[in-house]
């Protein structure tokens, strides 16, 4: 065109452009024409150079698919996805859907190669005549290439490059389309296209779209439904029937008329389909995405965190997250909906979301570590009385709160360590209501520790010198503090560590402090429930486990950690702990009111200083659980006067506050399961490994202490004398008692008598001077007086008067 000549009309310009482009492409590939105009300034050599360096085939990414997390019974916990997609084969797509998409997008699809020159020219002429875009010029193969390049893009820059309206991209797209046509059959290309295409409303692929808009599988799509979906791919947002029903219907009807025009359907079928409503809102199905939309959001978050730990899914947590949300995984978990419901019902029965205090419970299966349930009083969310904190797990997990001080539930580990060292269950220690341990040294794994000013007291009353069983039943603090001093903190800490106890905030070992047996750090309900499950499993510790199996969309197994179990305690020791904690739940024990059913149950209460958290942990041989009620708001304060279940608490205790949650949950969870019993510990475990104590009653204290030292025991004298029948200042009795014996090296306390019951000594009589000897009379008897005793039969002849 020369300068000054009038511009040709639009149609003529399009024809000229197309002819120019066709000639250009002929230099590249005989018989092919580029589907666009505007390349008048591009030389054949430049186009040839552009194509020369393109790859010979299109490398596509695997289709992004939604992953599903399932409960133990196969029910859905959550769906995770970046693109809601469920790939299907061509045979799983309704034939009318195939006809509809081909009719509106590329009716000569099965006749041409990578480029439909005739269709491109027709679309170009129609668009130019109409003044806007009425028909697309790209073939289905070209559209598939474009969608694939966009799907591979990971950054905004890559996405822009994949969609840019430049001749380089058009030529590249064409070259890839040629490669795709050589690599795949037409049916394979159509199948890939229908699985890749976006249909709006977060629905990728025809199967997800069919389920979303109509609640049917792609194989069941009817004519008007298929026409609607076929029309959506051109502009998924603009023709979205949920937002723009009028535009969606116009587009659908256009597809139907085009199908009739091509003879795919009859005019009557088209008219009937046009009369149908475009959509039934009641049948629209949304696929919730992510844990926030799960019925079990906290459990779901914990599972996802565990999945991200699996380095098979990515070198970093970010890579793993991307893989999980696109790989179409099926993740099976240990969550038992029946037991979960029991936990949730128990929480709902004894607490409310509006409470100041929070409540939580975890339930674990002994011998497997399978986490069957976790529930809490504050629901998931960011609104008032909601939280994103999971009160059941460690701080290291997203949303993990990081635990609470667990109080006297730690005494179970002291009992285990004592039994393992041969301490008998009958072992008695004098346990006053208050004891002064200021400056007293406690051995640790690395030396000793002490507290400058420490005078702990008991929260309950018991006998003056309880046995281990009696002290456990009454949760006698002064007994277990002295016991922990005698056996050392290291054995207790070692047992606790083997049973998975550590600081839930720092993940460090629990600090070996003087008050270790009363709760030395912050632990979680899941951690404590799983530790107690070890006793139920007779000493077999299994790490908590929530993921049982993972498979891909192609039903291939993904390596996932299996059961991680190890022998943590000898069975006899674990049986001994169960024996002691079982007594806690018998009449007179702190857990007696929580006993139910016929199965053996064992448990322990826990209350922290100032009642900031109260616990109950317990188990049968089938299930173990730990419940907690605590203040979770800084600054942490006493639970008393805080609300729980809508009422102000007047008291806070492990048995009366946290215990009822445990009882309700476990009673429902164990319902229908066979009656179970603990294994009775053998006599040696009950009696322990003891040495005989000498009989010291009535002995001076110095002599008694020397005697104990000679036999390998440590001795000490109680500060206050006691009522006794021994003489004042002498040994009245020992603790432990002489009849019970004591472990080698144990500390024996001497109780000295105040003499209040002593029998007074018999007074020594005043000596009487001896009587003087009697001098026989010198007077002679008168004549005739007998000189022999006449009454003595030895003298029969002796008679008076003879």
From TrEMBL:
Gene3D superfamilies per record: 3.30.10.20, Biosynthetic peptidoglycan transglycosylase-like, DD-peptidase/beta-lactamase superfamily
Matches recorded under InterPro entries: Beta-lactam/transpept-like, Glyco_trans_51, Glycosyltr_51/Transpeptidase, Lysozyme-like_dom_sf, PASTA_dom, PBP_transglycosylase, PCN-bd_Tpept
Sections of the chain in a coiled coil: none
CDD domains (UniProt xref): PASTA_pknB
Reaction equations catalysed: [GlcNAc-(1->4)-Mur2Ac(oyl-L-Ala-gamma-D-Glu-L-Lys-D-Ala-D-Ala)](n)-di-trans,octa-cis-undecaprenyl diphosphate + beta-D-GlcNAc-(1->4)-Mur2Ac(oyl-L-Ala-gamma-D-Glu-L-Lys-D-Ala-D-Ala)-di-trans,octa-cis-undecaprenyl diphosphate = [GlcNAc-(1->4)-Mur2Ac(oyl-L-Ala-gamma-D-Glu-L-Lys-D-Ala-D-Ala)](n+1)-di-trans,octa-cis-undecaprenyl diphosphate + di-trans,octa-cis-undecaprenyl diphosphate + H(+); Preferential cleavage: (Ac)2-L-Lys-D-Ala-|-D-Ala. Also transpeptidation of peptidyl-alanyl moieties that are N-acyl substituents of D-alanine
SUPFAM superfamilies: beta-lactamase/transpeptidase-like (SSF56601), Lysozyme-like (SSF53955)
Biased composition (Pro residues): 760-793
Record has Membrane as a keyword: no
Keyword match Disulfide bond: no
One Gene Ontology biological process: proteolysis
UniProtKB keywords: Carboxypeptidase, Cell shape, Cell wall biogenesis/degradation, Glycosyltransferase, Hydrolase, Multifunctional enzyme, Peptidoglycan synthesis, Protease, Transferase
GO molecular function ontology, one term from the record: penicillin binding
Domain PASTA: 688-754
Region (Disordered): 753-802
Record field: transmembrane: none
A cellular component annotation (GO) from this entry: outer membrane-bounded periplasmic space
Similarity comment text for this entry: In the C-terminal section; belongs to the transpeptidase family. In the N-terminal section; belongs to the glycosyltransferase 51 family.
UniProt-recorded name of the protein: PASTA domain-containing protein
């Amino acid at each position: 065109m020369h300068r000054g000549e009038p511009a040709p009309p639009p149609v003529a310009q399009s024809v000229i452009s197309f002819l120019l482009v066709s000639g250009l492409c002929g230099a590249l590939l005989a018989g092919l024409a580029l589907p666009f105009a505007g390349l008048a300034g591009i030389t054949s050599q430049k186009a040839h150079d552009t194509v020369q360096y393109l790859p010979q085939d299109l490398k596509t990414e695997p289709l992004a698919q939604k992953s599903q997390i399932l409960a133990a019974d196969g029910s859905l916990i959550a769906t995770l996805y970046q693109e809601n997609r469920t790939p299907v084969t061509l045979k799983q797509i309704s034939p009318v859907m195939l006809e509809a998409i081909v009719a509106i997008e590329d009716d000569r699809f099965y006749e041409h190669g990578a480029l439909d020159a005739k269709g491109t020219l027709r679309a170009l002429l129609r668009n130019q005549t109409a003044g806007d875009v009425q028909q697309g010029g790209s073939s289905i193969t070209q559209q598939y290439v474009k969608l694939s390049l966009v799907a591979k893009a990971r950054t905004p820059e890559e996405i822009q490059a994949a969609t840019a309206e430049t001749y380089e991209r058009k030529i590249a797209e064409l070259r890839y389309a040629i490669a795709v046509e050589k690599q795949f059959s037409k049916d394979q290309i159509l199948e890939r296209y229908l699985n890749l295409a976006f249909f709006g409303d977060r629905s990728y692929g025809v199967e997800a779209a069919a389920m979303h808009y109509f609640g049917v599988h792609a194989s069941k799509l009817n004519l008007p439904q298929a026409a609607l979906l076929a029309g959506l791919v051109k502009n998924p947002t603009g023709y979205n029937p949920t937002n723009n029903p009028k535009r969606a219907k116009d587009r659908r009807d256009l597809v139907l008329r085009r199908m009739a025009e091509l003879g795919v359907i009859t005019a009557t079928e088209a008219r009937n389909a046009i009369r149908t409503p475009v959509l039934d809102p009641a049948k629209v199905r949304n696929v919730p995405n992510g844990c926030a939309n799960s019925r079990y959001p906290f459990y779901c978050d914990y599972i996802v965190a565990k999945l991200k730990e699996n380095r098979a899914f990515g070198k970093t947590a970010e890579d793993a997250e991307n893989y999980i949300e696109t790989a179409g995984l099926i993740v099976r978990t240990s969550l038992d909906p029946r037991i979960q419901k029991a936990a949730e019902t128990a929480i709902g029965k004894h607490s409310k979301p509006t409470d100041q205090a929070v409540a939580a419970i975890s339930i674990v299966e002994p011998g497997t570590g399978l986490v069957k349930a976790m529930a809490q009083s504050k629901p998931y969310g960011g609104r008032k009385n909601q939280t994103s904190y999971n009160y059941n797990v460690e701080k290291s997990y997203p949303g993990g709160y990081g635990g609470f001080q667990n109080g006297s539930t730690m005494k179970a580990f002291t009992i285990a360590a004592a039994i393992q060292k041969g301490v008998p269950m009958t072992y008695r220690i004098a346990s006053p209501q208050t004891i002064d341990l200021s400056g007293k040294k406690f051995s640790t794994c690395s030396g000793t520790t002490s507290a400058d000013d420490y005078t702990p007291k008991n929260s309950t009353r018991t006998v003056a010198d309880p046995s281990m069983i009696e002290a456990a039943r009454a949760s006698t603090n002064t007994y277990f503090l002295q016991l922990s001093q005698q056996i050392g903190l290291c054995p207790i800490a070692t047992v606790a560590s083997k049973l998975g106890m550590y600081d839930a905030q720092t993940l460090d070992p629990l600090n070996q402090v003087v008050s270790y047996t009363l709760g030395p750090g912050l632990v979680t309900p899941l951690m404590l429930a799983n530790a107690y499950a070890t006793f139920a499993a007779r000493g077999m510790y299994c790490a908590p486990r929530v993921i049982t199996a993972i498979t891909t969309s192609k039903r291939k197994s993904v390596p996932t950690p299996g059961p991680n179990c190890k022998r943590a305690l000898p069975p006899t020791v674990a049986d001994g702990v169960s024996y002691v904690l079982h007594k806690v739940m018998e009449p007179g024990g702190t857990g007696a009111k929580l006993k139910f059913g016929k199965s053996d149950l064992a448990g322990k209460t826990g209350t922290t200083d100032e009642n900031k958290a109260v616990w109950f942990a317990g188990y049968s041989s089938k299930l173990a659980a730990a419940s907690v009620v605590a203040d979770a708001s800084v600054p942490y304060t006493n639970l008393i006067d805080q609300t729980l279940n809508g009422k102000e608490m007047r008291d806070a205790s492990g048995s009366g506050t946290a215990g009822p949650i445990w009882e309700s949950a476990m009673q429902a969870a164990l319902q229908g399961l066979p009656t179970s019993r603990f294994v009775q510990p053998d006599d040696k475990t009950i009696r322990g490994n003891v040495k005989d104590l000498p009989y010291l009653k009535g002995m001076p204290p110095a002599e008694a202490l020397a005697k104990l030292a000679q036999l390998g025991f440590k001795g000490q004298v109680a500060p206050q004398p006691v009522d006794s029948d021994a003489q004042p200042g002498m040994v009245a009795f020992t603790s432990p008692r002489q009849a019970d014996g004591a472990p080698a090296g144990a500390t024996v306390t001497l109780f000295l008598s105040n003499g209040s019951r002593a029998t007074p000594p018999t007074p020594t009589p005043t000596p009487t001077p001896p009587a003087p000897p009697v001098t026989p009379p010198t007077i002679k008897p008168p004549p005739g007086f007998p000189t022999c005793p006449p009454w003595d039969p030895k003298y029969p002849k002796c008679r008076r008067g003879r």
